[in-house]
Amino acid sequence: MVRKLLIVSSLVSLAFVAFGQNKKKDKALVTTNVETKVDYKKPGAPLPPVKFYTQDGKYLTNQELQNDANLLLMLFNPTCDHCEDQARILKENIFLFKNSKIVLVAAPGMGPYLSYFVNNTKIESYPTLQLALDSAQYIDKTFNYDQTLPQIHVYDKERKLLKTFYGSNPIDSLKMYIE
Fold this sequence. Notes:
The chain is built from five helices and seven strands, in the order H-E-E-E-H-E-H-E-H-E-E-H.
């Protein structure tokens, strides 16, 4: 009788150990298969994969945006007066931007309005200011909908988000991020 009891308790113990080990394996499978989401709006976040297309039909990707200086991405609407004002501020102070890249990015549906923006700002005569349309959902990943346009996202040379500016900003606010 004692022997039967010992055998049954041993089998029950083995079953619990085996069940526990399977649970651990299942948990490991679950945690390794879960994709972590990055909040691209928080300082320190990496630049998400981008694919912008310019008016001349070229694409700008993360690779084309690399250099040893900061990157300023201005989200704008071509029909927005504040966006035009910010573009003029950047244009008038372009001499400060010796190494930093500046790209003005509009939503894909704004393509027909870019010529209006270009005519009003005369920005085409400043090749260091690039106009582009988003085609990889960069705007959806980084735009703060509870804030106003324009939005300037400043990335360091490793393409980590340093700061986001909202609305029209004087050049003095941006100076410390310009290289």
